[in-house]
Amino acid sequence: MTFVGTFSAMRTGIAAGVMLLAASAGGIAWAGSVSVPADQLIETRQSGQDVVYGLISTMKAAVESKGDVKGFADGAGAMSRWFANFASLFPPGTETGHGTKVKPEAFSDAAGFAKAAADASAAAKALSDTAKTGDQAAFAEKFKALGGTCGACHKAYKEKT
Ligand code: HEC
Question: Coil, helix or strand for 138?
Fold first, then answer.
């Protein structure tokens, strides 16, 4: 039996608690939603975070070497969009499995988790806007602020690895 978690089409967000639970054979379905296997959803958020980390590492190297930052405008903008929808990748039914490192608090305090993701999204947007100006020092500052949002969320909602 395949366990199936579902998530709504990402607009309303899990934090809003809009799901109508309806049990069905072998899975969970919510009204107005599409079905995605839980493992696939967990894999998506983990691989996405690894992509984020790769980008952050490249940015860090540029900050340290005082390299050009204009090229990071698009990547930081994409990161902002990623975090804008990040919380919707954590619907009920994805608390465990596929080696997830998410803490139960991301579900019991879904609003706090969504706020942490929104903070990261806003910080990445600010970083993108700053990258466009090419101002190295300002970029370094916004980069630090973004890093703070990663740490804040991980501390509250992610198991240590
Ligand atoms: C809103 C909360 C939140 C924010 C903000 C956040 N993370 Fe995470 N991150 C998580 C959670 C939760 C997981 C665990 C996901 C899972 O295993 O299902 C995770 C996992 C990861 C992983 C491990 C992925 C894997 O292979 O399992 C990396 C790397 C990571 N985050 C980097 C970052 C970086 C870098 C930032 C900031 C740019 C960031 N995260 C911001 C919540 C967050």
Answer: helix
Q: Please tell me the residue having the least CA distance from ligand 1 atom 24.
A: 46
pTM: 0.85
Contacts of 90 (CB under 8 A, 6+ apart): 14, 45, 102, 106, 107, 110, 113
Closest ligand 1 atom to residue 113 Cα is 1
Tell me the per-residue pLDDT of 1-58, one tens digit each, with 9 for 90 and over: 333 444 433 333 443 333 434 334 445 455 677 889 999 999 999 999 999 999 999 9
Q: To test the ligand 1 pocket, which listed residue (158, 159, 160) has its Cβ within 8 A of the most ligand atoms?
A: 158
Question: Residue 6's closest CA among 34, 40, 39, 32?
Answer: 34
Contacts of 118 (CB under 8 A, 6+ apart): 83, 84
| Domains of the chain from N-terminus onward | 38-157 (1.20.120.10)
19 within 8 A of 5, measured Cβ to Cβ = no
Q: Contact, 84 vs 91, CB < 8 A?
A: no
Give the number of other Cβ atoms within 10 Å of residue 40's Cβ. Answer: 12
Give residue 161's pLDDT: 86
